[in-house]
Each structure stands twice: as C-alpha cells, then as structure tokens.
Amino acid sequence: MVPDRRWIGITLIGLLLAPGVRVGAAEADANEAGIDFFEKKVRPVLADQCYDCHGPQSGKGKAKLRVDTREALLQGGLSGPAIIPGEPDRSLLILAVRHDGAVAMPPKSKLEPDDIQALASWVKMGAPWPASAAKGAAPVPAPSEGDKDEKPGWDKAAKDFWAFQPLKGSEPPQADGSGESPIDRFLLARLKAAGLEQAPPADRRTLIRRATFDLLGLPPTPEEVEAFLRDDSKSAYEHLLDRLLASPRYGERWGRHWLDVARYADSNGMDDNLAYTDAWRYRDYVIASFNADKPFSRFLEEQLAGDILAEAEPTRHDELVVATGFLALGPKMLAEDDPVKQQMDIVDEQLDTTSRVFLGLTMGCARCHDHKFDPLAMTDYYGMAGIFKSTRTMISFRVDSKWNTTGLGGPQASLRLEDLKQVIDKHDNALVNGNTNKMSPEERAAHTKLLEDAKAEYAAIPKAMTVIEGDVGDVEVFLRGNHLTRGKLAPRHFPTILAGDEQTPLSAKQSGRLDLARWLASPQNPLTARVFVNRAWRWHFGRGLVSSVDNFGKLGQLPSHPELLDWLALQFQKDGWSVKALHKRIMLSNAYQMSTRWDEKAAKVDPEDLLLWRMPRKRMEAEAVRDSLLAVSGQLDLATGGALLTSTPFENLNVTGLGRLNEVYQSRRRSVYLPILRSALHDQFQAFDFPDPAVSNGDRVTTTVASQALFMMNSGVMELASASMAKSLLDDAKSNDPDRMQAASLRLFGRPAEPEEIAEWRGFLDRYVTLPSLAADPPEKRRQRAWQGLCRALMSSNEFVYIR
Q1: Torsion of Cα atoms, 162 then 164 then 169 then 171, to 10°
Q2: Which of 58, 61, 87, 408 could bridge to 462 as Cys pair (CB 3.0-4.6 Å)?
Q3: Would you tell me how many other CB atoms lie within 10 Å of the CB of residue 315?
C-alpha cells in the first residue's frame, strides 16, 4: 500500500500494482461487448436458420444437436462438439455453415456471407453467451416474436424489478451526529449494521487535490493549495467547491465524461473512416452546457430534439441544432449496399444509444426477438424505431451515402447548404453509380469539376452534423430482425413497462423525438434521474451505487444503496435538474471527504468497499495524465473550443493517411480538444484505457499493462514535460537545490517534501551526473539532464498519478 505522505521512487511499473487497480476489468468490458454482439448478430441467425431442426421445439434436435444454449453447442451432437471457443476453423458449426465440412448447413443453400462471418467472429471471441444464472437473473418468459396477436407474457417478477418502479421518497435514517448529511445517514446506517464505520477525514491538502481533479481534471497550483490552507473559516471547503464549479475548466472535465456516454468521435470508423469535420461543434456545445449548469432535463431535450425546439426559439437556432449531434455522430456502415438495412442499422444505433444513455436499458437486444431478460418487447423496440426512422440522419442511403448537416449563421447558409447537398449527391452518384462505360472522358471530367467545386463551397459554409425531421410514419416489426420479413405495424410509442399500455398516440406530423425527450425527463419515468445521479456518483467515487452504470436491467448489478439512489434522484429533480447542485450535495458529504485509510477489519467484512468505509483511491484517466503533465511543466494551453482536425468534408482518413495527424497530437491544448478518431485512437489514449468511441460507455476500466509504464518512461509528452519542468526549476536563480525540490513537490503532489525525501533526491542527482553516457557533456548539460531525470521519476510516481 502507498503511504500517505512518502514518495516512492518507482515508475509506473510499480504503480500498476497499487491497491484499487481493477485488474481484469477490460476482460469484463470485452465480455459485455461480446454478449451484445451475440444478441444482435448471432442469436437472430441461430433462431432464424437453425431452430426449426435444432431449437427448443425440436426435442433432442436432429442428429441430437441443439443450438439454443451454449452448453448444448459445446456438448454437440452425434458428430461431437459443435463449437470450440476461440477456434472457428476447428468448430463443426462454422465448417457446416461454410459448407466446408462433411455436413453442409443449411443443406439447401448457404447463409449470407455476413451471417457466416458473424458466427465465425463470435466463436473466435470465445462464444460469449448471456449467463443469467451467474447473476441470479432468470430469463423473462417472452413468447411473442412480433408476429403474434398476444402481448408478451412478462411474469410478475419481471414487472416488479426494482428499476421499473417509481422513485421512492425514503427519509434518511436518524442521525447519530450533528454533522451528518442525508447522504451520510444512508451510508452510515448500512455501515453500522455491518459493524463498520467511516474512515477519518482526509487532510486538507489531500482534499483540495481530490476536489480539483474531480471537478477540473487538473492539479491545484501551490498558490491555490496555500490559499485553501490559510482559509480557516467554516465555509472554506464550500467556497472551494464554488470556485471550482465556476471555472471554465469544469465544463471541459465534465463535458468529457458526457462525451464518453455520447460515444463522441471526430471520424466515422467502420468501413470508411471519414472525417467528421464538424463534430467539434457538438463537443463545444456539451462543454458550454455543463459550464452554464444547463438543467439536465433541458440538456436531454436539446440533444434529442433541438431542431424541433429551434422552430420556436429562432434566436438560439444554431446552438439547438448543434445539440442534435448526439444522434448524428454515431458510426455508420457507409458502404452498405442494402439501403433499408443501412437505414435500420443507423436507427438501431441511435435507439440503443438513447436507451443506454438515459434509461440504462439495452433495448437493442429487442431488435430480433423480445428481450431475453428485461420486459422489453419487439413491439416496444419497433415503436421506438419508428421515432428514429422518422428522423433524417443521412442525405441518402446507398453505397456512397452521406450524413445530414445544417447550415449555421442564418437561413441563407442553410438554404445554400441544402442546394449544395443536392449538387454533390447528383455528381457523386453519376461518378460512383453511373454507367461509366458509356461516359466519355469529357463528361467524367465535367462531373468531377462540378463535384469538387461544390465540395469546396460546401466546406466553406459553417455547419453542424445534425438530424432533422424526416418522412414521418410507423414501421412494421421485422420478424427476427429481417427487414424482408415483416409483421404487424408497431405504432410509435415508448417502452410499455415504463410508460404503460395506454399511451397517447404520437402526432402524424412529427417524428415524436420531442415527445420522447419530454417523457424521458418527466416524473412518470423513474430511470432518467436514477441513471444520471448514478453516473455522477461513479465519476466521484470510482463506482456507481449501481456498478453497471450503463445497464439497470436484470443482467446489470443491483444497487448497493437503493434508498440513497432514489433520494438523490428525487433531490436532483427538486433542484431543477442542476448538475452543479448535485456535485455540491455529494462533495459536501463526510463520505466524499473521507481519507483512503486502510482498515483490516472492514476489508474482511467488505473487501470491495461497497459500503464505502473509506474513499477509494483512483488513477487518473488518460486525459488527466496528459493534461496534468502539461500543467505542472507550464506548457498547458488553456485556449477553449474550436477544431484541431483540419480535414475536408467526406475525407477518408484511412486512405489519405493518419500520419499527418501526429502534428495535431503535439498540440498543448487540453486533451478534450484533441481529435478522437474511431479505428485510430491516439497512442496515449489507448494505453490508459480510453473507451471505445463507437459505443456508449459510462464506466472506464483501469487496466494493468506494460505500455503504460513505457509511456511514462519514453513518450514524447513525458520527454517534453520533464524537460520543461526541469528548466523552469533551474531558471530560478534565487533558489538552491533543496528549494527547487520543495517547489517540485508542491507542484506535483500539493505538499512539501520530507527531509529524507530531499536527501534521497539529492543522492539521485549526484549519481545521475556521473553516468558514463553523460561523460562527454558539459557540466550544465549534465545537470539539466539529471534534473530532467528526477522530474520524470517524480511524475511517474504513485503519488502523482493516483488521486487519494
């Protein structure tokens, strides 16, 4: 365990063994992604193509093979195991569907290539399958597949699941002391029942460093620390929180948290990694919204229906349409040759993201069948899908399809942009899909010239990636997810388990996005407030009250403190959905101000600290590591907003080359402003567990890999930061070496160095200047290199990279 006040002279190699590191969390995250892949890509194929002969209605199955459970596939039939996890080329199932083995399945015709690839990919990733028994969740009985008249037969237990119940206004337990907040009273009641107590308060230096990192993502300056220590008023800590919440750095920190769940990126990824040249406007909108403490309910409405709201608020038109980037920024399979499938895949991505972000539910699982664990029917899925299908995200659906944009700065820009879209689409279509054999070189050249001119003018007009209202209408249920096989019409509506069976029909003149947004933020829906306060709690404590922050369904985790979760959600609503008020409520609690002191007794009773008997130690995320290195070395550029990715519209970054972007990553702007490229993340982001920007993710993992230590020792960021900090310390001619060491400790750790540390560091410098590799250097250069080495070691230490 890392002592509270002592620097340990080790790099991140030792740091990686520190308490609190969630070893194996990446594997858990990968397994969840695998299960999602199974539900969307694999189960529908098995159900559609295999169940008739090898499914639940086929008894023992032909050839004694069943494919409706993982265990049955592993056991196999007369020919042996059907799958060998991790080895698709040796799995009989894959050989059969490829028609490469002794048996060809289906016997009359091969599956579609995409279906075969999906099965092979699933086996290669280990054949993940929802393991309901492991989490105590029995599958929900769901007889409906969308083509039957009866409603799904959800049992009472499914309907009574905690997440679908109204918010309960429980009173906090009676207090034992006068200084206990309602939050502490909930927590202490559980601790007392377990025979435990809270850790003592953290010292003030630790507290200001913790609060500053939590709210700003940067270390406090020595001057800020000293000012806080000098303020002996009872309200000093609250004043500190007010100052931090008023800083423009706050929106950059908490905006980045939201961008994680909004799966923000500056490129498309997938088949063509096209540059999202205008995505930055949504990022800046998010940062500004958090800085302004925009009510979360309004923040939600703007992201789902800002274009509709703008009709009644023309003076805020640009801001409101930019907000709909939330729906527009997802990854898209642009080379899909089936336009209906392409459209419905985009609808699915928007629907699943919206439900995960605001409801904590995996509604995407109901695209092909009623949800296997939660009471979400296919009719609910397609009722929601109709809302997003009635929304225009793409200009067209074909192999060269392009996303929708809206002009900014006035109606003339919007009108001209619409004209240019048609021109670009016309000439692009002629060049890509026209009969090129009959097109003369002169005609091709003319199309090319007109296309390039239109693209150049298009690029010059300020615009944003947005959605707008499309052709409004309901959609039929796609049986087993196949748009070629359709069932009954599913009127647009919200999930019946939450909104009820008797819902007011949505207007035939609008998509229903604004109605959806207002319902999500209404008292009738208990999940939106629960999900967000749980996200805030996780970002403050490192773990949510519901640890599966993106999944409140049966395959998620139960809340550790359900009464506290509902109390916080109700207070959040009463405070006008103010996120800053939520911060203060949490951070003024004794629980947040606890030390990280270890307690052997408590660790035996509650080894995972679920009851919060101490404050968990947290490692900085990738952005905080980089920003902190730049800050303490005096290099951080605090300019706000704007675009760093300079690409032309529809530029394919995979084709034009990603190497030139290395210069962009040399920027000294805050990390939130660096481009996030799908399929090509910046090396540092990858090393320090940046989430996959293709999917919504509210719970970053903390892994233990060698590349992190290598980054801290060898990266360009560390080289520049350590050299700059060493120079700034040596340039102070009035200081001696012990004074410089004290200055370094105050900058990096927020505390003065101990005498024994000073002695250890001086010994380090003395040894460094005598290294044979420096023998040919002049004394001043050897001294500079030695101080740079010391700064590098201090920056790589546990105490700098971990927040206590």
Answers
A1: 10
A2: 408
A3: 8
Contact 96, 107 (CB under 8 A): no
d(CA 23, CA 459): 46
- Any idea how long the chain is? 804
E strand intervals along 342-474: 391-392, 405-407, 463-465, 468-469
Q: Which amino acid is at 436?
A: T
With CA atoms as reference, report the closest residue to 489 among 147, 142, 152: 147
SS3 24: coil
Angle at 513 between CA 507 and CA 517, to 5 degrees: 120
Distances 383 to 43, 318, 386, 475 between C-alpha atoms, Å = 22, 30, 6, 8
pLDDT of 534:
98
With residue 618 as reference, give the H or E element that holds it.
strand 618-619
For tokens 């201090």, name the residue.
Answer: 794
Cα–Cα separations (whole angstroms), residue 274 to 325, 343, 443: 16, 18, 27
For the stretch 302-338, pLDDT in tens is: 999 999 999 999 999 999 999 999 999 999 988 888 8
Lowest mean pLDDT among 434-448, 702-716, 718-732: 434-448
Above pLDDT 90, what percent of the chain?
59
Q: Quick one: which of 551, 724, 728, 711 has its CA closest to 620?
A: 711
User: What span, in angstroms and rounded, lies between the C-alpha atoms of 186 and 491?
Assistant: 43
pLDDT at 262: 97
Local structure of residue 686 (DSSP, 8 states): H
- Confidence at residue 293, expressed as pLDDT on a 0 to 100 scale: 98
Alpha-carbon distance values, 127 to 26, 37, 112, 249 (Å): 17, 10, 20, 44
| pTM check: above 0.90 | no
CA dist., res. 665 & res. 663, Å (int): 5
What distance in Å separates the CA atoms of residue 573 and residue 563, rounded to the nearest whole number? 16
Helix (H, G, I), strand (E, B) or coil at 362: coil
The angle subtended at Cα 58 by Cα 53 and Cα 62, nearest 5°, is 50
pLDDT in tens, 44-72: 888 778 877 887 766 666 777 888 888 88
Distance CA 798, CA 271 (A): 41
- Sign of the alpha-carbon dihedral angle for 503, 508, 513, 514: negative
Assess whether the previous peptide bond of 295 is cis (omega < 30° from 0). Answer: no
Output the CA torsion 53→59→61→62 (10° steps): -80
User: Which two tokens mark 544?
Assistant: 């949510």
Quick check: 75 and 399 in contact, CB under 8 A? Answer: no
Q: Is the peptide bond before 106 cis (omega within 30 degrees of 0)?
A: yes
* CA atoms within 13 Å, Cβ hemisphere of 522: 12
Output the DSSP codes for 176-237: SSTT--HHHHHHHHHHHHTT--PPPBPPHHHHHHHHHHHHHSSPPPHHHHHHHHH--STTHH
Classified as helix, coil or strand, 465 is strand
- Give dist(CA 7, CA 748) in Å, integer: 11
Q: In this structure, what are the phi and psi dihedrals at residue 481, rounded to the nearest 5 degrees? A: 80, 5
Domain ranges of the chain: 25-129, 161-206+526-619+688-700, 255-426+461-520, 713-803
Structural contact between residues 545 and 564, judged by C-beta atoms closer than 8 angstroms: yes
d(Cα 683, Cα 622) in Å, to the nearest integer? 10
Q: Which residues pair with 465 in a beta bridge?
A: 405
Q: Where do we find the tokens 């994680």? A: 260
Q: Are 62 and 52 in contact (CB under 8 A)?
A: no
Task: Name residue, tokens 């040919």.
Answer: 776
Number of H-type helices and E-type strands within the chain: 38, 8
Q: Which of 56-70, 490-504, 705-719 has the highest mean pLDDT?
A: 490-504
